[in-house]
Amino acid sequence: MFIKWREENKPIPPECLKELRALSPFVSSKPRKWSPHRWYAYLAESKRIEGKPRQAVMYLGSIPARAMQGEDAEEWRLFWYKVNCSLCLAYVDFRTYQHAIRGIGTRVTRPSDEELLRIMHEGLELHPTWYKNYKAVRNAVIDRMNFHLQ
């Protein structure tokens, strides 16, 4: 498994924008214009199917280019929240989780374990209750985060 990055300079799709706006207290209390220049992180696994190389890819999160070094702390915190939720909901094993976090940390400033735990608790408190399977998602993320941070 490895981290695959994609850089794009296009507006955020409306369905993603709806979720970002729902988490707006986590991001900011005032409305903002979302930056179109973003980096997208994927967890990829290379395998061969019928002798041909293929990749199984899972979306982890996206971050504006200006926030990659922690200049925009709100976007940075939202990115790490989304990455951890994605990894927890995918039920990756501990080794893959650590490898993914380290791989993302090579490009995006990585939070300490205590800071990451605080980001996750703040994000889960603000996670929209209307989101599909809210309680199941919340419980799965909490269980996996406790497992990974032991």
Globular, elongated, flat, extended or rod-shaped: what is the shape? globular
What is Rg? 15 Å
| DSSP summary: helix tally | 6
Low-confidence stretches: none
How many beta-strand runs?
3
Tell me the β content: 15-25%
Query: How is the biggest beta sheet arranged?
Result: 3 strands, antiparallel
CA-to-CA gap between the ends?
22 Å
Strand order within the widest beta sheet: 1-2-3
Class by SSE composition: alpha+beta
Average residue pLDDT: 79
Measured as a percent range, the helix fraction is 40-55%
Give helix and strand order, one letter per element, not per position.
Answer: EHHEEHHHH
Describe the protein.
- With 150 residues, the protein is α+β, with helices and mostly antiparallel strands.
- The protein contains six helices and three strands.
- A hairpin with a 2-residue loop joins strand 2 and strand 3.
- The two termini are 22 Å apart.
- The model has no long low-confidence stretch (mean pLDDT 79).
Brief overview:
With 150 residues, the chain is of the alpha+beta class.
